Amino acid sequence: MWFKRKAQPPIRSLVGEGTRMEGEVSFTDGLRIDGEVHGDVRAMGDGPSLLVISEKARVHGRVKAGHVIINGEVLGPVEADDLLELQPKAHVVGDVHYELLEMHAGARIEGELRHLATGARPALKLAASNDA
Q1: Quick check: is 86 in a domain?
Q2: 16 lies in a domain?
Q3: CA-to-CA distance for 13 and 122, rounded, in angstroms?
Q4: How remote is the C-alpha of 59 from its chain's centroid?
Q5: What's the average model confidence in pLDDT over 96-116?
Q6: CB 101 within 8 A of CB 113
Q7: Minimal CB count within 10 Å: which of 8, 43, 70, 86?
Q8: pLDDT above 90 covers what percent of the chain?
Q9: How many CB atoms lie within 10 A of CB 91?
Q10: Cα dihedral 21, 38, 29, 33 sign
Q11: For residue 76, how far is the Cα from the chain centroid?
């Protein structure tokens, strides 16, 4: 295996389906959103963090965490310091900043994609590349 994924932090908090929150949401470790948040959602501290925005979830604000998984809707910029996973029903309206990106067919982004320049990474060639 080329890339080894780090152990993910546990999800300790949940915004349940049918819940609407207004204001900034800060969390440590992991957070799952199944409801609606009107405000920024961000991981606190320098440790690993996981944010899951499920298929029925909506976030109206800035999103920032280490590992971000989106299958719902985000209206605002997204920043993933480690990995951004865009599942098939993901819809992001805003600029996206990422270290590593995994995007499934059907996911939509209305904004710019920008790689975070956090350090030198080795150049990779695609297996199907015609360059020798």
Answers
A1: yes
A2: yes
A3: 36
A4: 12
A5: 95
A6: yes
A7: 8
A8: 77
A9: 17
A10: positive
A11: 12
